[in-house]
């Protein structure tokens, strides 16, 4: 259980760090938006993901730029349209229009001031936003449950594997000690036999060596001297 909590915390921290890094890089609290209408078609299609930059000051926005802003009349919806006119310079006020719309809509496309401005579109990722449609409830919850289930199974598998390895480590030393004891006992039994065999072989060599030596000497001495030796022994 601790391993699962640890993995969840690691994932959450990684996501948070990445998100903070992206917001700092693009200069916007939310640098990603999904196009939900066809008002900017064909430039922007439904389910495209747009990436915006908040580093471009509102004063530098010009005609032709595609910007993201809060709807002027109630600020309850985010709009992405193209700037078509600068209505006023003091304060700067813009008018926008969807490329696929016939005309600008009051309260939606103008007046756009610095207060409504969020950022300028810098990148477009085609059709990736379709995933957000797939991940709507309850599918997103099912995916989360599957991910957590995989993490749980992974932790159980790791725990069982560790227990198996510990069991093997406990069993092997005992079997090794038994084998060692058996080897020592066999060695003790074999040692006297080896010693006996070696003693026997030495004695045999000694016993067989003397007659051979005597016989060899007898063969080398002439018969005359042998007779003299016998007479001297008889006189003694």
Strand-helix topology:
Elements: H1 2-26, E1 32-34, E2 49-53, E3 66-70, E4 78-89, E5 92-97, E6 117-125, H2 130-134, H3 139-220, H4 223-235
Antiparallel strand pairs: 1-2, 2-6, 3-4, 3-6, 4-5
3D structure, described in words:
A hairpin with a 7-residue loop joins strand 3 and strand 4. The protein has a 6-stranded antiparallel beta sheet, with no helix packed on it. By secondary structure, it is α+β, with helices and mostly antiparallel strands. It is elongated, with a radius of gyration of 50 Å. The protein is built from 4 helices and 6 strands. Residues 209-220 have low confidence and may be disordered. 53% of the residues lie in helices and 17% in strands.
